[in-house]
Amino acid sequence: MEERHNLDLKPIGTIHSPYKSREEAPYQGCGREEICAVEVFPEFEEGLKDIEGFSHLILIYWLHQSRGYSLNVRTPWDVVPHGLFTTRSPNRPCPLGLCVVGLVAREGNILKVKGLDALDGTPLLDIKPYIPSLDAKTDAKVGWLEDKLTNS
């Protein structure tokens, strides 16, 4: 049996978006045109060096308004419950959010991005560059979503 570890996560910034509540937020950020501001705390600003050369970024954040979870959930795409780990439900045992966003501009320690579904005030945990040759998987299977995504 493996030992379980407690984690101490330190936010590197805050996400500012037009979405003030879970009801206002889109199910997914892809395709959204609203511009959001990703504030990186000043002590981490140096880590943004050269970020302007990337068109897309991967943001990892803490879903701070997530409350509880169920291991079987219904999604917007199906009335049948599916296993939590086969969905993108924000209600999870460890509520991490992940979104690929388009980088619109950098203004000092502020990144202007589009395609984000995070709520206003969401703690930002990390930023990584999106690299198509490493991140895109053209042969990926999407399980129970196969028919749902092609018919929507």
Report on the structure:
It is a single chain. By secondary structure, the chain is mostly beta strands. It has one domain: Elongation Factor Tu (Ef-tu), domain 3 (Beta Barrel). The chain has 2 helices and 8 strands, in the order ββββββββαα. A 6-stranded antiparallel β-barrel has the order 1-2-7-6-3-8. Strand 4 and strand 5 (78-83) form a beta hairpin. The longest helix has 5 residues, at 146-150.
N- to C-terminal distance: 43 Å
CATH class (first level) name? Mainly Beta
CATH architecture: Beta Barrel
CATH superfamily: YaeB-like
Q: Helix share of residues? A: under 10%
Beta-strand percentage? 25-35%
Which series of helices and strands comes N to C? EEEEEEEEHH
CATH topology: Elongation Factor Tu (Ef-tu), domain 3
Q: How do the strands line up in the largest sheet?
A: 1-2-7-6-3-8
The description of the largest β-sheet is:
6 strands, antiparallel, barrel
Query: How would you classify the helix and strand content by structural class?
Result: mainly beta
State the low-pLDDT regions, or none: none
Q: What's the number of structural domains?
A: 1
Radius of gyration in whole Å, from Cα?
Answer: 17 Å
- Rough outline: globular
Tell me the layout of helices and strands.
Blueprint lengths: L12 E4 L18 E6 L15 E7 L9 E4 L2 E6 L12 E12 L2 E5 L7 E8 L2 H4 L10 H5 L2
Antiparallel strand pairs: 1-2, 1-8, 2-7, 3-6, 3-8, 4-5, 6-7
